Amino acid sequence: MSLFRAMLLTLVAIQAATCVAYAQEAAKKKRRIELRHADVLEYDESLGQKARRLLGNVAFEHEGALMYCDSAYLYENNSLDAFSNVRINKGDSIKLFCKKLNYNGDIELAKAREAVRMEDRKMTVISEALDYDMAKDQAWYLDNGTVLSAENTLTSRIGYYFSKMEEAFFKDDVKLVNSRYTLWADTLRYNARTEVAFFLGPTRIVSKENTVLCTRGWYDTERDISQFSHRPTMLSKDQSITGDSIYFNKNYGFGKAIGNVEVADTSEKVLLTGRLAKYFEKGSMVLMTDSALMVQDMGGDSLYLHGDTLLSIVDTLLDRRILFAFHRTKFFKSDMQGKCDSLVYSYVDSTIRLYDDPIIWSDENQLTSDSTWIQMRNGRADKLYMKRNAIIISEEDSVLRYYNQIKGREMVGHFKDGRLHRVDAEGDAETIYFGSEEGTEAENVNRAKSSRLYIIIESQKVKQITFLSQPDATLFPIKEVKADEMRLEGFRWRIAERPMKVPDIFVWE
User: What is the CATH number of the domain that holds 73?
Assistant: First the structure.
């Protein structure tokens, strides 16, 4: 054997001997379980460990903990088995009750079985099997347990409790019940000192006001403040809110959803999307900003509406929603588009009210007025009310820039199958229309004035103009009319502003 190998084996032997000696010394330092009292003491050598059998008012003491039971076996290896009315008192805070107990004094581990109840100042743990590490003040159950506190009842399959940190960890089939909500979770961590619960895995929280679905988050039970991440959803009456994260303060009934937010109203078939939404329980109000968009299903067709800010609120008298769009508002529908500064959409009467420079495009027609109302029916425009300085323009010739025009103080448009079919103009009504004898290139222009008139439109062209009072009308050859005479006062052709597809509603010019 080489000298090096011999030295190596000697060193290993010394280290092994040192470890054994250290372990033995550590074991010696552990105090023996002390028998404090028993009515009867017997030796039972049948157990092979020179066990002492103890009967009647049995009491032990070990490392500051007191143990009581009706009967017990105390073994030479510094362990015991206790039976019937078992009780452990550790300090002035921890109490444990059970029917059977195995306690290992060397590692200070108590294994409680049958009707187990463990109490401290803030909570009680109930289970049929619970292990308690008294050295570390840690307890756990692995086969169903219940935790009771002043306001909460929690059940789970697995539970760990860390007394020094006042923290508990629960896993599998977790259910938490109190007077305000019920929670189901896969994994839950709770700190009794801060009263904050953390969720890991699928979680559902149900209260009278709403339901929250999430996979990550925390809830401050003392302050009623919570935050959820990983695409949580908050459900209330006929409405759901989903975002990358949701913050909610139950005291104020206020919530905030951030990132890829979706607010769905199932009763109205309306979806709001954006990057930031604020929610207020009172009035079930939602304030959507940052790329805010409303989408409403209208029987196979959809209305897309954008504004810098969208506000959805419930009319409590009628129990129906109203949508407000503020500033730089545009909407797109296959048969109609619009633009204005602000808009109000009432789901009660299916009426869209546009304010501050409103403009509507329907087929070839551009419609403007000081304020415009669109009344919908079965997902399509039914009537259009144009109030003050109403004017309708359609392009007759894009090269020569000829435009048919109708103007009046007020107008009412009637739709048929989603297309503008008839227009009633009232109050200083004026028209400019181009025509030809053979129906090809425009050859003449008709200018007329009347207090009242109506126009019939077919195939996107004016088929008939009817004056309901004596008109002042003149037919001119186009060559005899100056360019400025072909425009009514207030004329503005704004085709460049028209959204031709959905993304255009986010472009403001």
Answer: 2.60.450.10
